[in-house]
Every structure is written in structure tokens, then in C-alpha cells.
Design brief:
Elements lengths: L4 H14 L6 H11 L7 H8 L5 H13 L3 E5 L5 E5 L10 E7 L5 E6 L16 E7 L6
Parallel strand pairs: 3-5
Antiparallel strand pairs: 1-2, 3-4
Helix pairs in contact: 1-2
The structure holds zinc ion (ZN).
The site of zinc ion has 7 residues, from loops.
């Protein structure tokens, strides 16, 4: 199926409407950036992509709004830096393992999700609610 730009805009607007987010062109553009990217995005990348058309404060506010509305989710890396990705999971949170994948060469960050938990021995009495696996290596483009 081929969508033209107007159809895509309508789809993005409908997604925002479904999440009860008031539609602005900035929000449509921000959502479009997430939908068109296969990598995790951080604030710097988003500001670079959307600026000067969008003010950094507006990007920041809309990111928080999107997180609040479960449109996107925050993923911290090993250093605590925050990345954002579309939140399109429908699975039960408890059954999901988040996998964050870093390329050592170009510093791209990918993200995926798997259903099966990994067997990890935890301290006795410790109950875990989320699992994140960090994978480091070299991406396809850097080989
Ligand atoms: Zn790479």
C-alpha cells in the first residue's frame, strides 16, 4: 500500500486524536519523526532534526506530553542518558524484556522487545518488575 503525504498526515492526526492529544503541526511533525525512525532518538537528535522549525522548549514539552499519553516511552542508556521511542507495545508489561542495542562505532542505539524473560538469579526476596538487556557491538552499517 502506498500512502501519499496527505494520507500520512491524516494517519498521524488520527493517532494523536485517539490519544486525546490536541493536534498541532509541531506534534504531527514530532510524531512523524518517531514513526519514520528505526533508531532510538534523544533530545539532541530531535532538536537537530526539528529545529529551527520547532523551538527546543516546545520539543521538550511535547516529548513529555507524548510520554504522559503513552505515545512514546523513555529508555535510559547505561550512563543514564534518556532516549525516546514509539510506545507501540500492546503486551503485558510484566512479560516484556526490553533490549537496548548499542553500536560502538557510530553510537547508534536500537531497541527491541522480547517476550521471553532471561533466567537471571536475583538476590533472595527480590522481586523484579522490568528487565532491560544491554547489548553492545557493531551495527550492519559499520561492518
Ligand atoms: Zn554502527
Amino acid at each position: 500500500m502506498i500512502f501519499n503525504i496527505n494520507t500520512m498526515e491524516t494517519i498521524f492526526k488520527n493517532i494523536l486524536k485517539t490519544k486525546k492529544v490536541y493536534i498541532t503541526q509541531n506534534r504531527v511533525d514530532l510524531l512523524k519523526t518517531f514513526i519514520q525512525s528505526d533508531k532510538l532518538l534523544d533530545f539532541g537528535i530531535l532538536a537537530h532534526t526539528l529545529h529551527p522549525d520547532m523551538d527546543r522548549v516546545i520539543i521538550f514539552r511535547n516529548l513529555n506530553l507524548f510520554v504522559h499519553k503513552n505515545l512514546i516511552m523513555k529508555i535510559p542508556d547505561v550512563n543514564g542518558k534518556l532516549y525516546y521511542t514509539l510506545n507501540n507495545r500492546k503486551d503485558d508489561l510484566k512479560q516484556v524484556v526490553e533490549v537496548v542495542i548499542f553500536c560502538d562505532k557510530c553510537h547508534s542505539i536500537f531497541w527491541s522487545r522480547r517476550k521471553n524473560r532471561v533466567r537471571i538469579s536475583l538476590p533472595s526476596g527480590f522481586s523484579n518488575h522490568t528487565e532491560t538487556i544491554v547489548v553492545k557491538g557493531t551495527c550492519r552499517d559499520c561492518k
